[in-house]
Amino acid sequence: MDKVRYEKGLAARTAVLGEEYVNQSLRAADDFNREFQELVTEYCWGTCWGDDTLDRKQRSLLNLGMLAALNRMHEFEIHFRGAITNGLSRDELKAILHQITIYCGVPAGVESFRVARKVFAELDG
User: Fold this and answer.
1) I need a surface site. Which of 29, 80, 92, 125 has the fewest CB within 10 A?
2) DSSP summary character for residue 95
3) Which superfamily does CATH assign the domain made up of 55-125 to?
């Protein structure tokens, strides 16, 4: 493991997903999945999110589209929250969900809007 890339990834992962979520994920790691958590932190977050070519808003936008297309709604919700953290406005998020609906299909759009409403209800609550 490249410690510099891992630490850069840990910082990015924490900034986007929140300290509580990241700490919980790392604390829950066991002998079976610890290497996986390190891999995700180092490569997804250190290599990809740590590259300044795209800003975090752009990366969030991409992730939402890809996760919706893949029907990975658990991860979609996590990254939807991250997109808010990264500064995407409700209007921008609504436009993204409309585009998801057109390009990924109405069922993906329905699920994406369902997740968005849940997240907004929790934030506004």
Assistant:
1) 125
2) H
3) AhpD-like (1.20.1290.10)
In tens, the pLDDT along 12-24 reads 999 999 999 999 9
Long-range CB contacts (within 8 A, 24+) of 67-75: 68/100, 68/104, 68/108, 68/109, 68/111, 68/112, 69/100, 69/103, 69/104, 69/108, 71/108, 71/111, 73/111, 73/112, 73/115
Asked whether 59 and 49 are in contact (CB, 8 A), the reply is: yes
Q: How many residues does the chain have?
A: 125
Q: How far apart are CA 9 and CA 56, in angstroms?
A: 13
Helices marked H in the chain: 3-17, 19-27, 34-39, 56-69, 73-85, 90-104, 106-124
Residue 1: pLDDT band (50, 70, 90) is confident
Q: How far is it, in rounded angstroms, from Cα 103 to Cα 2?
A: 38
Please state the domain extents for the chain.
1-53, 55-125
Count CA atoms closer than 13 A to 53's CA, side-chain side.
3
